[in-house]
Amino acid sequence: MADSDKPVRKIIHVDMDAFYASVEQRDDPELRGKPVAVGGGHRGVVTAASYEARPFGVRSAMPSVTAKRKCPELIFVKPRFDVYREVSRQIRAIFADYTDLIEPLSLDEAYLDVTADQRGLGTARATAEEIRRRIREETGLTASAGVSYCKFVAKLASDQNKPDGLCVITPERAQAYIAALPVSRFHGIGPVTACKLEALGIQTGADLQERSLAELETRFGSSGRWYWRICRGIDEREVKPDRPYKSVSAERTFDDDLRDPERLAAELTRIAGYAWDRIERAAVSGRTVTLKVKFADFEIITRSKSFGTTLGRCEFESAGQALLAALHPLPKGIRLLGLGLHNLIEVNAAQSRQLGLAI
Question: What pLDDT, in 10s, does the model give residues 120-143?
Fold first, then answer.
């Protein structure tokens, strides 16, 4: 648990329910109540799936052909990111009425530090309830929320009663709550690590709590310390309004495998344009360009080049084209290209934190 001599934070993790798919169902009444996948195309992947599609096993990042096989009635719709961004801005404006400490994780989820009771609602639970009510009334969408004293537990809690749910975990309940969960639910423990833990007989938070710090560090290095801390509900990370991006990128899956150098170069120009739009919106700059290539047999490779100074739009694309040109002649066709900027420069400093409200 957090140290007793430190003020207890009040953190809300808000997670929109099947955000992209829900926006599509909101805007097209004929989609409501039906299994919907955003994304698609016979070579594409599912970007998001509605709750009606999930019982069939349809999930994000699944190849479209697999999703359609699992759910023959699945309806694919093209993503409308301009609409999703606008709705996300609406939601962010609601958050801003309750706190200045907002850390977006994506268009559809964010951490809020509501320790300072700006609206005089009395508790973090009441704040979360009002935020969820306003999101429903002002956007026609539902959101789930988790309320707790730290980021890790708040994020676990937001998933507890989905969709359209609220879960509050007080500091006193946290360790027992974590102990009952499978480690595969823990944010930061992916499928590969979960399998490694389960091979060691660690299937739940309680199992993880029984292992010593020394053992976990021996087996998992620096990550072992993180696992030891989170299974005990120890997470001192602050909500940072200006959370730095690790990278900004864009990618595209092609309808047909491509090998022609000119066609690939033209596609990369388009992808670079999409990526640069995101870079400008993120207000970042960087020194490393990374090209991502997925071949027809699903092998993925990356190639990077770093520079002594931050890059402009032309230098960014030129570096990507040079990395692509160096791959020719290609051993096999390419089904996906991506281009990203890394080693980013943080633009704004995080704001300081305020304290004083009950969970």
Answer: 999 999 999 999 999 999 999 999
Q: Return the closest-CA partner of residue 359 out of 153, 144, 206, 180.
A: 153
**CATH code of the domain covering residue 271:** 3.30.1490.100
Q: Catalytic residue among 24, 52, 103, 109, which?
A: 109
Q: Which domain holds residue 191?
A: 175-230
Annotated binding site for Mg(2+), which residues? 15, 108
- How far apart, in whole angstroms, are the C-alpha atoms of residue 180 and residue 191? 18
d(CA 292, CA 37): 25
* Domains: count for the chain: 2
Q: Which of 202, 230, 258 is the last residue of a domain?
A: 230
Known binding site: residues? Answer: 15, 108
139 domain-assigned: no
Q: Which residue ranges in the chain fall short of pLDDT 50?
A: 1-3, 347-356
- For residue 331, say if its preceding peptide bond is cis, omega within 30 degrees of 0: no
- 109 catalytic? Reply is yes
Residue 282 lies in a domain: yes
